[in-house]
Write a sequence for this structure.
C-alpha cells in the first residue's frame, strides 16, 4: 500500500513550483470576491434599518430564493451580515466549485490524456501519488483562501460581523471548493477522458443547483441532502451552525477514498463508464467541415440546450406563487408594483433573462472556444494541410456560435413559457416572453465578437473572455444592490440592453451593438487569417 503513495511529496513540490503563481492569483481573487464587499453593503444598508427590511422582503420572493437560496433570518435578525451571506454565499460557492473542478481535471485526467502521467509513472512514482499531491494542493489552497477571506472581512470592521461568524462564512466557501474538487476526482476516474470528466462534473454541479431551487421553496429539509445546500445551511451571521461544514468535510473524505479505490483498479487512460462503439465506417457528413465540427460538439450542444430549457422551466415554475406573495406584502407592493401597467411576473421576467442570457453566452463562448482549443492541441493540423481555407474554419465556427446563441436563447424562452403556462391562471403569451428574451441576443453576439478578436490576435489569451463574462454577470446581477460605479456599469454590454417589457425597445442601441459585434468578428478574421498556428 505504501508504494502506491511513493514520491507524493516530490510530486507535490513539483506541482507547487509549477502552479504557485496561478494559485496565488486564484487565492487573492477568490478571497476578494468572497469577502471584499461587506463594507460597501454596510454603507448602503447598514445605517438605515428600513433599507435592510426592504432587502429582506425583496429576497424572500420565490424568484430570489430560486436564485440565491433561503435565509434562516427573520426581519428582526436580518443584519448586514445576514444579508451579505444571503446574497453572496451560494453564488460564490458555485464560483469556488467551478474553479476547483477545472483545476483538478486539468492536473489529473487532462495530463493523463496528454501522456504526461504515463511519463511520470515510468519512474518510481506510486499509482496514487499524483492524485494525493493534487488533494494536498487543493486542501492547502482553500485553507489559504479561508484565512485571507476571514482576514479581509475582519479588517472591514463591519458591525455585527464578528470573527467567529466571518470564519464560518469563509470556511463554508472553502469547504465547498474542496468538496467539488473531490467530486471532480470521482468523475476523473469514471469518465473516458478529460472532456467527459469536465462535462459530468459541471452537469452534476448544475443539477444540484437546479434541484435546490425546488427544495429550498417547497421542502427545505431536503436541501440537507444537497452538497450546494451545505453552503447556506450554516445560517452564518444568524445561528452559526458548523454542522454543514462537518458533513461536507466528511463527504470529501469519503469521495477521496472512493477515488482512490477507483483509480488503483483502473488502467491508465481508461474509464469505468462504457464508451459507445463507433461505426466501422465514417458517416458521409464527416467528410465536410460542418459535419465534423457538429459531430465533435454534439453532446456539448445537446447538453447545453437541455440545461437552458430546464433553467427557463425552473424559473417559470415559480411565477404562479408571485401574486400571493406580493399581495400579502406591503413593502413588495411599494418596491415592485409602483407601475400598475406591469405584473410582478413581467417585472421579474426582465431580471431573470439577465441570468438566462448569461447562461446562453457561456454556451456559445464554450462552443467558439473549440476553434482555438483544437488548434492548440494540433488536431486541426491535418485539415489545415488540405484545401480548406482559414476563412472556412473561422466563419463556420463564428456563424455556428451565432446560430447556437439564438437557439439557446429560444430554448430558455420555451422552457420559461411552458412552465409559467402550467402554473398561472392568466399566463403570459409566447410573444411577450419571446420579446423579453430575444432583445438580449445582440449582447450575446457582442461576446462572440470579443472572443473572435482574441482568437484572431491573442489566441493564447482567450481566457480573458471568461473574466469579462464574470464581470458582466456581477455588474448586471449585483449592480443595483451594491451601487457599482457608473463607469464600471458602462463597460458591461448587458447594461445597454432594455429590460423588456418594463423599458422601451431601443432600436438604435440594439443596431449599434450588432454592428460593433459584426465589426469585431471581421477584425478577428483579419488577425486569424494572418497569424501563425499556435500550440500548447
Amino acid at each position: 500500500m505504501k508504494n502506491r503513495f511513493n514520491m507524493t511529496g516530490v510530486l507535490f513540490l513539483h506541482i507547487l513550483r509549477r502552479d504557485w503563481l496561478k494559485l496565488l492569483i486564484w487565492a487573492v481573487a477568490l478571497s476578494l470576491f468572497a469577502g471584499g464587499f461587506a463594507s460597501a453593503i454596510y454603507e448602503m444598508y447598514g445605517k438605515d434599518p428600513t433599507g435592510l427590511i426592504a432587502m429582506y422582503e425583496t429576497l424572500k420572493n420565490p424568484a430570489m430564493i430560486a436564485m440565491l437560496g433561503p435565509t434562516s433570518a427573520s426581519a428582526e435578525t436580518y443584519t448586514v451580515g445576514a444579508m451579505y451571506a444571503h446574497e453572496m454565499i451560494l453564488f460564490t460557492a458555485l464560483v469556488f466549485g467551478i474553479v476547483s473542478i477545472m483545476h483538478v481535471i486539468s492536473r489529473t485526467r487532462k495530463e493523463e490524456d496528454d501522456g504526461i502521467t504515463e511519463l511520470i509513472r515510468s519512474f518510481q512514482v506510486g499509482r496514487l501519488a499524483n492524485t494525493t499531491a493534487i488533494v494536498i494542493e487543493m486542501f492547502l489552497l482553500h485553507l489559504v483562501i479561508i484565512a485571507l477571506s476571514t482576514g479581509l472581512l475582519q479588517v472591514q470592521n463591519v458591525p455585527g460581523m464578528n470573527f467567529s461568524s466571518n470564519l464560518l462564512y469563509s470556511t463554508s466557501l472553502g469547504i465547498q471548493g474542496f468538496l467539488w474538487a473531490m467530486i471532480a476526482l470521482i468523475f476523473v476516474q469514471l469518465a473516458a477522458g478529460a472532456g467527459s470528466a469536465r462535462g459530468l462534473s459541471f452537469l452534476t454541479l448544475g443539477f444540484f443547483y437546479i434541484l435546490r431551487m425546488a427544495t429550498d421553496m417547497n421542502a427545505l429539509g431536503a436541501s440537507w441532502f444537497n452538497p450546494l445546500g451545505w453552503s447556506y445551511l450554516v445560517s452564518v451571521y444568524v445561528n452559526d451552525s458548523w454542522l454543514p461544514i462537518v458533513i461536507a468535510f466528511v463527504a470529501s473524505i469519503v469521495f477521496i477514498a472512493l477515488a482512490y479505490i477507483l483509480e488503483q483498479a483502473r488502467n491508465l487512460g481508461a474509464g469505468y463508464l462504457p464508451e459507445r462503439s463507433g461505426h466501422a465506417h465514417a458517416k458521409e457528413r464527416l467528410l465536410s467541415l460542418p459535419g465534423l465540427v457538429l459531430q465533435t460538439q454534439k453532446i456539448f450542444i445537446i447538453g447545453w440546450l437541455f440545461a437552458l430549457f430546464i433553467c427557463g422551466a425552473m424559473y417559470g415554475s415559480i411565477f404562479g406563487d408571485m401574486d400571493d406573495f406580493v399581495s400579502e406584502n406591503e413593502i413588495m407592493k411599494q418596491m415592485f408594483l409602483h407601475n400598475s401597467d406591469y405584473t410582478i411576473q413581467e417585472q421579474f421576467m426582465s431580471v431573470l433573462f439577465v441570468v438566462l442570457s448569461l447562461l446562453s453566452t457561456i454556451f456559445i463562448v464554450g462552443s467558439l472556444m473549440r476553434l482555438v482549443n483544437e488548434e492548440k492541441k494540433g488536431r486541426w493540423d491535418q485539415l489545415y494541410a488540405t484545401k480548406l481555407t482559414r476563412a472556412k474554419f473561422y466563419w463556420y465556427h463564428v456563424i455556428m456560435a451565432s446560430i447556437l446563441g439564438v437557439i439557446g436563447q429560444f430554448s430558455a424562452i420555451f422552457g420559461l413559457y411552458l412552465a409559467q403556462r402550467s402554473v398561472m391562471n392568466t399566463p403570459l403569451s409566447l410573444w411577450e416572453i419571446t420579446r423579453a428574451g430575444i432583445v438580449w441576443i445582440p449582447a450575446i453576439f457582442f461576446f462572440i465578437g470579443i472572443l473572435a478578436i482574441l482568437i484572431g490576435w491573442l489566441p493564447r489569451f482567450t481566457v480573458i473572455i471568461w473574466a469579462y463574462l464574470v464581470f458582466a454577470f456581477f455588474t448586471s446581477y449585483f449592480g443595483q444592490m451594491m451601487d457599482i460605479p457608473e463607469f464600471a456599469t458602462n463597460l458591461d454590454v448587458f447594461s445597454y440592453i432594455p429590460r423588456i417589457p418594463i423599458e422601451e425597445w431601443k432600436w438604435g442601441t440594439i443596431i449599434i451593438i450588432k454592428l460593433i459585434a459584426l465589426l469585431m468578428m471581421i477584425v478577428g478574421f483579419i488577425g486569424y487569417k494572418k497569424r501563425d498556428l499556435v500550440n500548447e
Remarks:
- The mean pLDDT is 86.
- The CA atoms of residues 456 and 527 lie 4 Å apart.
- DSSP finds 23 helices and no strands in the chain.
- The chain has two domains: 1-35+91-272, 287-536.
